[in-house]
Design brief:
Length: 751
């Protein structure tokens, strides 16, 4: 009987529709095996892995099974919605879902937000509302401006909102101030009233406040939550019930600007060519008890959100930055993952304990790397590098997806003013910690599977057939081939990129590989981690900042009976999984996947604003750029080694007509043959840099930008389309979100 992964692999690589009959034939199933297959396919459909059609199953892709939707249109009595955060491939238009209205829910109108359960049918996507959500502040945060008649208007700070809103009630707000507002009527065109004055929109730390308000990120802890956090700090650390690891020289290697330290590592040779190692993780589950105020708030937030100037933590700072943070020369509660690494880099054994640790050192990546490079590193660092070289050998054999994804770093001075924006340097020190964390995460997943315990998996699915077909068509336009019949592995993409010598062409193909990938998410049904080339993977190493990790810790507490005696404090009993954790794991993982996407978008928006502010004094300068996206209305480009996506409208490319080749992702000049394609490198002049919205606009140097009249009607979308050069109607092209390592660590995958 094929497993779920094998079935999914067959469905997505089949050259013809794959129904139950085709699946059974492919795996040689007969009699009772076909009955078992039918049940397995039904289970997979209920889990959202495939659609429910029996004649031809398809892997679910694109829209999460449960997500937040925004009502975008009401046509002929039917309600249509789009995903609020369209991340799977943000350079494509978001899918439109038909909303099946419930009698229990009030009539929906354009602009409403709903949490919905989604499914793909033969006629497209359908959404069943679960509940109506409060309106977001998106579009209702802005700067107060006055027109010629002296009337106040709210100029939006969201680059996707095109129009200002009239202000009906100004309150104490003054011209030029950043404010929060709310609608005074039900219409999207009604006046707004100012409800909060934030102040100078260009003041230090304003950009993160904009993102917090726009995305509705909870950032204030209730008194009840703070009181419970302070009470939790009084919990004792009992050496009678914990493994005492205080004499082991465990070290935490983190970014120099890290605000919390939730993991530390140690290794020593085992005398057989391998290593014994410990990955010590902050024991957050000891302090954050299921069902308490702390737990409810952590589940609502889902994760910490990191901005250049602040952190919005998942837990109050008394825990996240103090009691739960692993620090040098201080006793701390930890969950210890003991692993053995053989001479081939394979992790052959693991066990989990609750422990007390006292770190020998908190060290920055750069300092650890400098000590290794100088040859005078202490023994504990030399051992870590020795164990890592074995882990890295196993990683190379596994051949995970290896993409170059530079991470922008905004450095601020003490006053919050930008000092520098640069790309974080990628060091071996980053890889050391990353590979230790991966080993611990795999061990946690397999340890729970061994006990048939609930697991919150980190899932990164194999690219869907639709995305692979688009990838194949794109490669064909570049004169390259891609076989659809093969089993898709990360190594296929790695070898393809490795064989490309020309940097410009490599960047172009890499963009296409990025577009072909799915977005990682959390879920209780294992579907593997394609990017890491792992069959079982769970997040275990960052419970301070991710609720998913906290759930994994609780599951380990239950499965391996790591419970501690109940202290005589007014805190909830137990540190394992609650009944809610077990019965509502699907809903919880759907919710924290959504909060993760929210955090990623908020972080990206803030970085974009900082980059635009950094560049606002350099308008008119020419930069080396790379094209990251092409549409009929123009192309998007990013500045090399800095980032910051900006639009080059087709209206600025001169008097020539440009055709949009959708398959090849390029614009082609009909007279000159000039091409602008994804991955191309070229010099562009910065025309605009709006720090409030984070929007950039470029121009091709020396182009006349003169407009001409349209000629004829637009051709069908699947063919080349002649575009009238006019004002750009599209929106920015944020990069597709992929998995990275620990916050502040550049990495190929958000593990």
């Amino acid at each position: 009987m094929p497993g779920k992964e094998q079935i999914l692999e067959f469905i997505q690589t089949s050259d013809k529709p794959a129904g139950k009959r085709e699946i059974a034939k492919a795996f040689g199933l007969k009699g009772q095996e076909k009955i078992a297959l039918k049940k397995r396919l039904k289970d997979m459909a209920e889990e959202g892995l495939i659609d429910g059609r029996r004649t031809a199953y398809h892997r679910m892709g694109g829209v999460p099974k449960v997500t937040v939707l925004k009502i975008v249109a009401i046509e002929d009595g039917e309600v249509f919605a789009e995903p609020e955060n369209w991340a799977p491939d943000s350079k494509e238009k978001p899918p439109r879902l038909l909303v099946v209205e419930s009698k229990k829910m009030a009539a929906l109108k354009k602009g409403d937000r709903i949490l919905a359960r989604n499914e793909e049918t033969g006629r497209g996507w359908r959404a069943t509302p679960m509940k109506k959500l409060p309106a977001r502040t998106e579009g209702l945060m802005g700067v107060v401006e006055f027109d010629g008649a002296g009337k106040p208007w709210l100029a939006p700070v969201d680059k996707r909102v095109r129009e200002s809103a009239p202000i009906g009630e100004l309150g104490e707000a003054k011209e030029g101030e950043l404010v929060l507002a709310e609608r005074m009527g039900k219409s999207a065109r009604s006046k707004v009233k100012v409800v909060e004055v934030i102040g100078d929109p260009l003041a230090p730390k304003a950009f993160s406040l904009i993102a917090i308000a726009k995305h509705g990120i909870p950032h204030i802890f209730a008194n009840q939550t703070l009181d419970e956090a302070r009470l939790a700090t009084e919990l004792p650390l009992n050496t009678d019930t914990r493994e005492d690891l205080r004499d082991v020289p465990i070290v935490a290697i983190d970014p120099a600007d890290a605000r919390d330290h939730d993991d530390a590592i140690w290794a020593e040779p085992d005398g057989k060519g391998g290593y014994r190692a410990i990955v010590a993780i902050a024991d957050v589950s000891y302090y954050v008890r299921p069902g308490g105020a702390l737990d409810r708030e952590a589940r609502k937030r889902g994760n910490s959100v990191y901005f250049p100037d602040r952190v919005v933590p998942m837990l109050p700072e008394v825990l996240s930055a103090d009691v739960c943070s692993l620090k040098e020369d201080v006793d701390r509660a930890a969950m210890a993952c003991h692993i053995r690494v053989d001479k081939n880099g394979k992790v052959t054994d693991w066990r989990f304990t609750r422990a007390i640790v006292r770190l020998a050192k908190n060290i920055a990546y750069e300092d650890a790397q400098a000590a290794i490079d100088a040859g005078d590193a202490p023994e504990y660092l030399q051992n870590l590098w020795g164990a890592w070289k074995l882990l890295f050998k196993a990683r190379e054999a596994r051949d995970p997806l290896d993409l170059e994804l530079p991470e922008r770093q905004v450095r601020l001075n003490d006053d919050g003013v930008i000092e520098e924006i640069a790309v974080r340097e990628r060091l071996d020190a980053h890889r050391v910690v990353e590979d230790f964390m991966i080993a611990a995460n795999v061990a946690a997943a397999k340890a729970l599977e061994a006990k048939a315990a609930p697991v919150v998996y980190r899932i990164h699915e194999t690219p869907s057939r639709e995305k692979l077909l688009a990838f194949k068509e794109y490669l064909a336009s570049q004169g390259r081939k891609f076989a659809m019949g093969q089993v898709i592995t990360p190594g296929i993409f790695n070898r393809m990129l490795k064989d490309i010598a020309d940097p410009a062409e490599k960047a172009l193909i890499m963009e296409a590989v990025l577009r072909s990938q799915t977005q990682a998410y959390y879920g209780p049904a294992n579907a593997g981690h394609f990017g890491l080339s792992l069959g079982s993977y769970a997040h275990f190493t960052s419970p301070i900042r991710r609720y998913a990790d906290l759930l994994v810790h609780r599951a380990l507490v239950d499965a391996y009976k790591l419970e501690q005696p109940k202290p005589k404090l007014d805190l909830p009993d137990g540190t394992g999984l609650s009944d809610r954790d077990r019965t509502a794991l699907h809903q919880i993982t759907d919710a924290i996947s959504q909060t993760e996407r929210r955090a990623m978008e908020a972080e990206r928006d803030t970085i974009d604003r900082y980059v635009a502010a950094w560049l606002s004094g350099r308008v008119g300068e020419t930069f080396d750029t790379r094209i990251t996206g092409v549409q009929g209305f123009g192309f998007f480009a990013t500045i090399d080694k800095l980032g910051g996506d900006g639009l080059v409208p087709v209206s600025t490319l001169g008097r020539e007509y440009f055709s949009y080749d959708e398959k090849a992702q390029k614009l082609v000049g009909e007279s000159s043959g000039t091409e602008y394609a994804v991955g191309d490198r070229l010099k562009l002049k910065l025309a605009e840099a709006n720090a409030l919205t984070g929007a950039l606009k470029f121009e091709v140097p020396d182009s006349d930008g003169a407009g001409i009249e349209p000629r004829g009607n637009r051709m069908p979308a699947k063919k080349r389309t002649h575009q009238k050069r006019g004002p750009a109607k599209g929106k920015g092209a944020p990069r597709q979100s992929h998995d990275q390592g620990k916050r502040g660590r550049p990495g190929n995958i958000r593990h």
